[in-house]
């Protein structure tokens, strides 16, 4: 089992909405004793729970990253046209703006290209 933490920044806009930017991820591998630090380009995907209750992570936003643009692969797999404007919102290290959590926290789950899955819940009550 690996341990780690995503490197994220949460920013409040003038209208009160928040957005998250994923800057990278640090993962400690207990089998080697090494810490692997990587930037956003080494992240395969990341997920955002905008009202995390501390028990169950509910994916409210999903984003894809990485050096290989998966747009064409997804388009072929779905056998459908995908609106490129909407796609660009999903292929990003920055979330779309969202309302602050009503009673929970903001949690971010990151999966890197090694398959390591790490979670952080940096903001909230």
Account of the protein in words:
This protein is mostly beta strands and 125 residues long. The chain has one domain: Immunoglobulin-like (Sandwich). The protein is 12% helix and 46% strand. The chain contains two helices and seven strands. The strands form two sheets. It has a four-stranded antiparallel β-sheet, with no helix packed on it. The radius of gyration is 15 Å and the shape is globular.
Helix content: 10-25%
- Tell me the fraction of residues in β-strands, as a range: over 45%
Coarse structural class = mainly beta
Give the tally of structural domains.
Answer: 1
Widest beta sheet: strand line-up: 5-4-6-7
Distance between the termini: 28 Å
CATH architecture: Sandwich
In short:
This protein has 125 residues and is mainly beta. Helix content is 12%, strand content 46%.
Name its key features:
125 residues; Immunoglobulin-like; three-stranded antiparallel sheet; mainly beta; 46% strand; four-stranded antiparallel sheet
Describe the protein's topology.
Layout: E1 3-12, E2 18-29, E3 34-39, E4 43-52, E5 61-64, H1 71-78, H2 84-90, E6 105-112, E7 117-124
Antiparallel strand pairs: 1-2, 2-3, 4-5, 4-6, 6-7
């Amino acid at each position: 089992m690996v341990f780690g933490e995503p490197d994220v920044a949460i920013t409040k806009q003038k209208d009160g909405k928040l957005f998250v930017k994923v800057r990278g991820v640090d993962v400690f591998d207990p089998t080697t004793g090494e810490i692997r630090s990587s930037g956003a380009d080494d992240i395969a995907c990341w997920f955002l729970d905008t009202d995390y209750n501390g028990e169950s992570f509910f994916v409210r936003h999903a984003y894809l990253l990485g050096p290989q643009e998966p747009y064409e692969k997804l388009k072929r797999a779905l056998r459908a046209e995908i609106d490129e404007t909407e796609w660009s919102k999903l292929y990003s290290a920055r979330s779309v703006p969202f309302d602050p959590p009503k009673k929970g926290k903001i949690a971010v789950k990151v999966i890197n290209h090694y398959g390591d899955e790490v979670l952080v819940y940096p903001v909230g009550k």
